[in-house]
Amino acid sequence: MHIVVCIKQVPDSAQIRVHPVTNTIMRQGVPTIINPYDLFALEAALQLRDKFGGEVTVLTMGPPSAEDSLRRALTYGADRAVLLTDRFFAGADTLATTYALATAIRKISETFGAPDIVFTGKQTIDGDTAQVGPGIAKRLGLLQLTYVAKINEVDPVARTIEAERRSEGGVQVLKTKLPCLVTMLEATNEIRRGAMADALRAARAQIVTWSAKDAGVEDISKCGLKGSPTIVKRVFAPSARAEKATIVDFANRPPAEALIEELFKRQPKLEAELISSAHGF
Amino acid sequence: MSEPTKAPPAAAGRAATKKELPEHFKAYKHVWVFIEQERGQVHPVSWELMGAGRKLADKLKVDLAAVVIGPPGEAVQHAAAESFCYGADLAYIVADEVLGDYRNEAYTKALTDTVNTFKPEILLLGATTLGRDLAGSVATTLLTGLTADCTELDVDADGSLAATRPTFGGSLLCTIYTLNYRPQMATVRPRVMPMPDRVEKPATRIIEHKLGLVEEDIVTKVLSFIPDRDSAKSNLAYADVVVAGGLGLGSPENFQLVKGLAAVLGAEFGCSRPLVQKGWVTSDRQIGQTGKTIRPKLYIAAGISGAIQHRVGVEGADLIVAINTDKNAPIFDFAHVGIVTDAIRLLPALTEAFRARLSPHSRDRIAS
Ligand SMILES: Cc1cc2nc3c(=O)[nH]c(=O)nc-3n(C[C@H](O)[C@H](O)[C@H](O)COP(=O)(O)OP(=O)(O)OC[C@H]3O[C@@H](n4cnc5c(N)ncnc54)[C@H](O)[C@@H]3O)c2cc1C
Ligand SMILES: Cc1cc2nc3c(=O)[nH]c(=O)nc-3n(C[C@H](O)[C@H](O)[C@H](O)COP(=O)(O)OP(=O)(O)OC[C@H]3O[C@@H](n4cnc5c(N)ncnc54)[C@H](O)[C@@H]3O)c2cc1C
User: Fold this and answer.
1) Which of B153, B161, B162 has the alpha carbon at shortest distance from B192?
2) Are B267 and B242 in contact (CB under 8 A)?
């Protein structure tokens, strides 16, 4: 079984700061990580490989420094890493991103064998559009299973997959054919620690590095900024709320009473509304 | 593509060049809202979007259309008829047996074909699991732009859709345009746009469109649907009163105090993300950027610091009440009413005090 896992290197958002004057993201010195959602996809892929044999190829599009994330993925046990990097890819929106990634997956298919499953995370923590998975699937003509909470069964002989997909108000149990694209939901598994042997291998591994041309991109105008129909016109900070909270003073009374008084004083209709909500009418 | 070493972000550097709209796109007119209905139920975000879509259509002086996709029968007809009560000028229906359950292949074809035939300039969908799954496929098929998870929509002076979405966990907003492609597509977060009033109106213009697929054409099969066991599960986003707890509660046992207060208020309970990560509370109860957006009349947060990722999920509440031991906690920057005290002691007292105030007996007092 050949499985491709798309991962994105993202700034560790917990450490991102916004410049108070210029409203730009201060990325300098912010460490980068593998998009946390992608680790659930990687682990799901590794489990299938362990069960059925085969290989896991991780793929990322990003600056040359995204190699760090690929090596990290190798330490978890991925077999091969492909870095798609070219200045032509810069500034891509999701349509241009999926053009580049789909082209690279076709090249991976020719070079290392056709994938049975392509995995992506549910979304990233920076762009967080959740559009790249469906976009790649459409471009490659793959069936798609998004928001997958559990893969129940894969039958490599019958070439089918059965999975539980989170939907509004419940779970859909779906069965479809391979090859397909799966976007994994968060908290569905836990990434393994990775063996010492994998760590050693990762440090020395050759990262397959492709430019747009190497990957077989035919139309550069479909890549990056040029190939992006969306345009970010304005970035700005949300307007701050003028006043802060009224802090309830409860020097001489029980705090609960003081708080309730303040609420009902502020919103006189609230008491009647709460009475009806408390009694279910 | 974001380049971690460069500031400002690469995406923000994208040049905003408006060329003359290519000739073949000039026929694209009108605003469309995809009406999400599953198992006979319309997702409320669809009506919220009708409200937002009505404003855009009025500004552009064009029609607002609802697009209803589903199996033939009562539910779809009813959803289409309802759309007029929420502001539609006309409704498109694609009804077919293969559209019974949501499946990407069939729905993508249904929506893409309708767009290609009737050519809207703006197409809006809810940013639900269904809406995002479908929008991503449709936009890629149409090779147009798609702005994700918006919180604000407007049209600018020259009639372009300005779709605003939070980024980096809500610490910044960005406004995105799709200038030279049609339709301009956006998904919008549930509970962000206000629910418009329903006004009884006759269903006037309904246009039915044929799908032209048979079951054999569709590879993916739905084996079953398992509804969430706890039927209250999905109510958090639409609750009028929400009580939530955070790490300040210290233990899963203390979280019961939140549930106790919620029960007395007839409220839904929720939590901050760390409680989900610790396994104290199930993930469907998480409020915030990566959880639910809520818009209740009253929100009570106990032992929650008010991180930006939490804040973006609760800002739409009419009245935010914070209980925190730290008077400098960021939650006091956006709460309306705060109380600096130990939540573990206050919650039981508050529960009792509310119980007394809200007894049926007090209802008579208020009514008189
Ligand atoms: C603030 C901001 C807002 C943006 N808003 C929009 C918008 O509304 N519409 C739009 O079209 N673009 C938008 N973009 C651009 C978008 O972020 C980029 O196109 C990005 O390359 C991919 O989108 P994503 O990060 O949203 O990925 P998602 O669609 O959220 O990612 C889903 C999965 O796809 C895979 N994946 C994503 N990117 C890569 C990659 N580079 N290499 C390998 N695998 C990958 C991962 O498995 C990931 O888990 C925005 C960018 C920024 C910085
Ligand atoms: C990508 C990303 C997405 C995220 N998404 C979400 C999200 O959707 N929702 C979310 O909530 N968070 C989210 N977070 C996490 C967020 O950044 C915060 O870490 C989180 O909200 C903090 O939770 P908390 O307020 O419960 O805990 P803390 O920040 O630890 O705050 C606990 C508070 O309790 C107070 N306290 C302590 N003891 C008591 C007491 N006895 N009585 C009263 N008060 C007390 C403390 O003063 C403190 O203010 C996200 C983070 C990231 C990076």
Assistant:
1) B153
2) yes
Tell me how far apart the alpha carbons of residues A23 and B220 are, in angstroms, rounded to a whole number. 45
Q: Give residue-wise pLDDT tens across range B249-270.
A: 999 999 999 999 999 999 999 9
Is B3 contained in some domain?
A: no
Q: Where are the domains of chain A?
A: 2-222, 239-281
Which residues of chain A are within 8 Å of residue B176 when distances are taken between CB atoms? 230-233
pLDDT tens digits along A17-32: 767 666 666 777 789 9
Mean pLDDT, rounded, of chain A: 93
- Read off the pLDDT band of B66 (50, 70, 90): very high
Handedness of CA B143, B144, B145, B149 (dihedral sign): negative
Inform me whether the pLDDT recorded for A136 exceeds 60: yes
Phi-psi map region of B149: left, alpha, beta (phi>0 left; psi -120 to 50 alpha)? left
Please tell me whether residues B182 and B243 are part of one structural domain: no
Which residues in chain B have their CB less than 8 angstroms from residue A270's CB? 297-298, 319
Query: What chain A residue is nearest to B233 in terms of C-alpha separation?
Result: A169
Q: Are residues B193 and B239 in the same domain?
A: no
Q: Residue A4: helix, strand or coil by DSSP?
A: strand
Condensed to tens digits (0 to 9), the pLDDT of residues A18-71 reads 676 666 667 777 899 999 999 999 999 999 999 999 999 999 999 999 999 999
Tens-place pLDDT, residues A150-168: 999 999 999 999 999 999 8
Q: Is B293 in the pocket of ligand 2 (CB under 6 A)?
A: no
Are residues B141 and B82 part of one domain?
Answer: yes
What is the SS3 assignment for A46? helix
Residue A83, strand partner residues: A60, A209
In-domain check, residue B123: yes
Q: Would you say residue B366 lies in a domain? A: no
Domain count, chain B: 2
Q: Ligand 1 center to residue A69 CA distance, Å?
A: 16
Question: Within this chain, do residues B298 and B335 fall inside the same structural domain, yes or no?
Answer: yes
CATH number where B131 lies: 3.40.50.620
Structural domain range at position B273:
231-358
Position B73 scores a pLDDT of 95
Q: Does B160 fall in a domain?
A: yes
- How distant, in Å, are the alpha carbons of A4, A49, A206 from that of A201? 19, 18, 9
Same domain, B238 and B337: yes
Does the Cβ of B258 fall within 6 Å of ligand 2?
Answer: no
Closest to A232 (Cβ–Cβ): which among B3, B11, B357?
Answer: B11
Q: Is A18 left (phi over 0), alpha (psi -120 to 50) or beta?
A: beta
The model carries a pTM of 0.87
Do B202 and B237 have their domain in common? no
Instruction: Tell me if the domain spanning A2-222 has CATH number 3.40.50.620.
Output: yes
Please name the residues between 85 and 144 in chain B that touch chain A, using a CB distance below 8 Å: 101-105, 108, 128-130, 132-133, 135-137, 139-141, 143-144
Whether A135 has its CB under 8 Å from any CB of chain B: the answer is: yes
A245: nearest CA partner in chain B: B336
For residues B35 and B166, membership in a common domain is answered with yes
Peptide bond into A179 cis (omega under 30): yes
Write the burial class of residue B84 (CB in 10 Å: 0-12 exposed, 13-18 middle, 19+ buried).
Answer: buried
